[in-house]
Design goal:
Layout lengths: L7 H9 L9 H22 L6 H16 L1 H7 L8 H10 L13 H4 L21 H27 L3 H10 L19 H23 L4 H25 L11 H6 L3 E2 L3 H7 L7 H6 L8 H10 L5 H5 L2 E2 L9
Parallel strand pairs: 1-2
Helix pairs in contact: 2-3, 2-5, 3-10, 7-8, 7-9, 7-10
Length: 330
């Protein structure tokens, strides 16, 4: 039976077979995050003090930052009470220093909602299949994100404290990370007190780093290397994003089954997959089918989805792709 023809009850059975995978492993999350943070910040410190370390810091550091930054995707899927302290720690070691605190991905929930996926109300969807020329501009935009975030934290955030009109514009247009410029978060997507603290912290960090670099308190290569790693990590994430879906929707709504068919599963070897599509991103189709699963459970969920008979298995198998052998998002 094709996925499109499967009944709700049959899909419920698929979810029931995954219940034992729902537990978030605190040791797994903490060890992964802290290892990435240690590698990244150690290399940045070494790279800003010695030209010999600069290339290694730029390449390996960018990959470590890329992996560490993608934990914000996990955080936005956390239920209340899951892994206490993890989000705050992530913001300290990653989110605030790269000017992209975790609240900026709060709009991701609309990317999974059946009412908005693939429509103008989806913050993370553009019709790349119909307009492939958008890919180049999207990648260029990805490279410019760090510079835009510097301007935001340096000028716009402080100015919004005293200009109410700018505050509204900042929230509606320049607060949540989106691909779709037509997306508006709406009144229900509010920032919490901790979100406001993180936003203020990004402004203080940016100003502090500029002043410290100008006065010699911090060597200027530190800021240069940090910005370079942020740019490469954003480019990697932009490339991965282009591969994550087929982007075939032309604005119509797509149910959960159609979302899976519009998503991809990367079939590269484990090492390349973890470098290019880390933190579970290489199992994107499985993630859209089972968005509540922690990233470390997706390999096992994938194994079950391909090794057992269930309605829609053939459609799931059709999501397999090797991103290194194709320039399309298929």
């Amino acid at each position: 039976m094709a996925f499109a023809e499967s009944t709700g009850a049959e899909l419920v059975n698929v979810h029931q077979t995954m219940q034992d995978l729902r537990v978030h492993s605190a040791p797994f999350y903490w060890a992964d995050l802290l290892l990435c943070a240690t590698i990244f910040w150690t290399l940045v410190l070494l790279g800003c003090q010695s030209l010999r370390w600069f290339p290694v810091a730029l390449i390996v550091g960018s990959l470590a930052l890329y992996r560490m930054a993608l934990f914000t995707h996990e955080i936005c899927h956390f239920k209340s009470g899951v892994l206490p302290g993890f989000e705050a720690t992530w913001n300290v070691v990653c989110g605030v220093p790269i000017l992209l605190p975790s609240y900026m991905l709060n709009s991701h929930v609309d990317h999974h909602a059946t009412r908005s996926y693939g429509t103008p109300a989806d913050p993370e969807y553009l019709p790349f299949a119909s307009f492939p020329q958008l890919r180049r501009s999207f990648l260029l935009g990805s490279a410019l994100v760090p510079v835009a975030m510097v301007v935001r934290s340096l000028i716009l955030v402080p100015a919004a404290w005293v200009l109410p009109g700018l505050h509204v514009y900042l929230r509606e247009r320049l607060t949540f990370m989106t691909m779709n410029s037509a997306y508006r978060p709406g009144p229900t997507l509010r920032l919490t007190r901790s979100d406001h603290v993180a936003e203020i912290a990004t402004s203080l960090w940016t100003w502090g780093l500029i002043v410290a670099s100008a006065t010699g308190a911090v060597p200027w290569p530190f800021a240069v290397l940090l910005l370079a790693c942020m740019t490469l990590a954003n480019l990697l994430n932009g490339w991965r994003t282009l591969q994550a879906h087929l982007y075939t929707s032309q604005g119509q709504t797509m149910d959960a089954k159609a979302q899976v068919r519009d998503s991809t599963t990367f079939t590269t070897c484990w090492l390349r997959g973890e470098l290019l599509c880390p933190v579970g991103q290489r199992f994107h189709a499985a993630h859209h089918l089972l968005p509540y699963l922690p990233y470390h459970a997706l390999p096992e969920a994938h194994r079950r989805l391909i090794s057992t008979e269930w309605a829609g298995r053939s459609d799931y198998l059709a999501t397999f792709t090797n991103p290194l052998r194709s320039n399309s998002s298929a």
